[in-house]
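Run log // design_07
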């Protein structure tokens, strides 16, 4: 599978998603590694096997083995931390906010790629997972390391589009299954 195959699977009502996939695949605000890692980390966070396979087939070859591993690590560690920090942020009891997480997060200290790249990918996954506290924290870290608003917005746009593609294809698959069951 490839990005073109994925785009061809989108229904006509989702043509804007096709256009966004095309333009974001060459997003100039990001380096090739930043862009490829953001796509892969967002795809993994989308939890849609077809999207993960297509995007990894398209963007995986653009990454070194270490960068591919780091993009997958960002998706994995954020899957855990986004849930935990969303919990601490959303519950009304304030004591959770001051308690140590007691969750291993060593990958954040030594991700195997440039700090900005890993933080961009973590931001993309946090956007897909809807953790405002994590998005804010990663955005501040990115700014302190010299990332631009355009770079940060670009990974948010990638995350939004990849998530929308996954949701659309998942919805279409569910509708097709429903139609078959009714027939």
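design_07 sequence
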């Amino acid at each position: 599978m490839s990005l073109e195959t994925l785009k061809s699977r989108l229904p006509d009502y989702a043509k804007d998603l096709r256009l966004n996939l095309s333009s974001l695949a060459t997003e100039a605000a990001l380096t090739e590694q930043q862009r490829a890692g953001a796509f892969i980390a967002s795809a993994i966070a989308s939890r849609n096997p077809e999207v993960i396979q297509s995007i990894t087939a398209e963007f995986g070859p653009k990454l070194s083995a270490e960068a591919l591993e780091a993009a997958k690590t960002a998706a994995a560690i954020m899957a855990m931390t986004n849930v935990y920090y969303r919990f601490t942020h959303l519950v009304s009891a304030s004591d959770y906010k001051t308690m140590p997480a007691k969750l291993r997060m060593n990958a954040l200290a030594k991700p195997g790629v440039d700090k900005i790249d890993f933080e961009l990918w973590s931001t993309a996954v946090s956007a897909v997972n809807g953790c405002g506290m994590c998005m804010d924290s990663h955005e501040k870290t990115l700014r302190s390391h010299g990332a631009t608003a355009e770079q940060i917005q670009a990974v948010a746009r990638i995350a939004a589009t990849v998530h929308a593609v996954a949701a659309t294809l998942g919805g279409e698959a569910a509708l097709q299954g429903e139609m078959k069951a009714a027939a």
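The chain has one domain: 3-182.
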